[in-house]
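How a chain folds remains the central question behind the approach discussed here. The record that follows shows the chain in one-letter code together with its fold in token form:
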Amino acid sequence: MFKGLKYKPTLSVFKAFALTASLGLLAGCATQPPPANTHSNICKIIEHDRNWYIAAKKSEKKWGTPVATLKAFVHQESRFVHNARPPRDYALGFIPLPRKSSAYGFAQAQDPAWHDYQKATGKFNARRNNVNDALDFIGWYNSVSNQRNGISLNDPYNLYLAYHEGHGGYRRKTYNQKPWLLDVAKRVERQSRMYDQQLKNCPNLPRRFCIWPFC
């Protein structure tokens, strides 16, 4: 019907597209932590910010860890705070000492594991305070736990033990010397099971997981 017509996009069209693309790319790092009183309800978390579901669903499709388990890991590790770090001790009450761990971000990924993830995936610009990257990291790490240690991706208890102790530590069963860690893993498992049940009844779950041409 429009044969013979030539469309020349104006500068304003390019600006609008660039803005839309930028908003899509920045969505992950702009994700806000849900209010503390919603942390036990995954539907409320998604209602607060749909990116929590979109990023988790992308990771699930890529690596196989269910959305509910991904969210349970983030709940345990950072309480959904993008720049979470381990507490710091102070000498004389005011001189900051080095932190006991390099763990940082939504997933509390430590430097060595994060660097392994970047090398394995080629995502050298990935950031631990970006929800998309953090959930992709958890999915990747669990897939390695599955490959190396045979842990089912539907077993949040053992996945978390491997996540905390490392793949070698899990094989050596170092967690057996840490009763407190076994309790934490059980808590993560319960959280995952609860989130999974809630997800079945969440209204209006987002259906689009990317914006063309960045899919």
In short: The first strand starts at residue 90 and ends at 91. Helices lie at 11-30, 42-48, 51-63, 67-78, 111-121, 131-149, 156-172, 179-199. Confidence is low (pLDDT under 50) at residues 1-29, 211-215. The CA atoms of residues 174 and 203 lie 42 Å apart.
